[in-house]
Amino acid sequence: MAQDQVDVMRELGFERFMVAGHDRGARAAYRMALDHPAAVLKLCAIDILPTHHVWTHVTREWALNSYHWSFMAQPYDFPERLLAGKEEYYREYVRCCSSENIHGVCEDYRAGATIDFEMDRKDLEAGNKIACPVLVIVGGQSHTAKFYGYEKGWSTYVTNLVGCIALPCGHYPAEQAPDETYSNLRDFFRG
User: Fold this and answer.
1) pLDDT tens sequence across 10-68
2) pTM, 2 dp
3) Considering 22, 52, 53, 171, which one is annotated as catalytic?
4) What are the C-alpha distances in Å from 118 to residues 54, 124, 137, 140, 189?
5) pLDDT tens digit string along 137-160?
6) Residue of 7, 23, 116, 123 marked active site
7) Where are the beta strands (DSSP E) in the chain?
8) Is 23 a catalytic residue?
9) Domains in the chain and their CATH numbers?
């Protein structure tokens, strides 16, 4: 995904750029900044911790509140079958749910638990860190914020952590705190 994004930006005439992303978009942006340091000038990750950090710091409390990480990462098509016909119960964005969407989400979690984790592990073991300025916007009431310290989590993976800003919202800062999210993005990318 990260390579595809860099290729698209290059095709559009941008050799260097700033990037922000939420959830899987932030994970792809993380990989862009790590694999293409000459291209990514600044990175803003919205309400995520690096995948490697999450999987290597699992606690009982986190697992009980974030069970979807391991549930949706189960082999095809176990979670898909359990979710089929129960989309309204399980998903917040039910209007977007289709069997293809659910499969895509499960594949995302499978990748996080396998290939993404392994790539992050190898980079960490090799001493590779994101060098560009990084801002993390946190949903202060999100499931992840309840169990992890963002500064501690991110400092292992980046060399220039500008800050971690907690907003008064859950996992969706752009939707739940749009003005604050915009202000922080604007200030970070202009600065």
Assistant:
1) 999 999 999 999 999 999 999 999 999 999 999 999 999 999 999 999 999 999 999 99
2) 0.93
3) 171
4) 13, 10, 25, 28, 30
5) 999 999 888 889 999 999 999 999
6) 23
7) 17-22, 40-46, 134-139, 161-167
8) yes
9) 2-190 (3.40.50.1820)
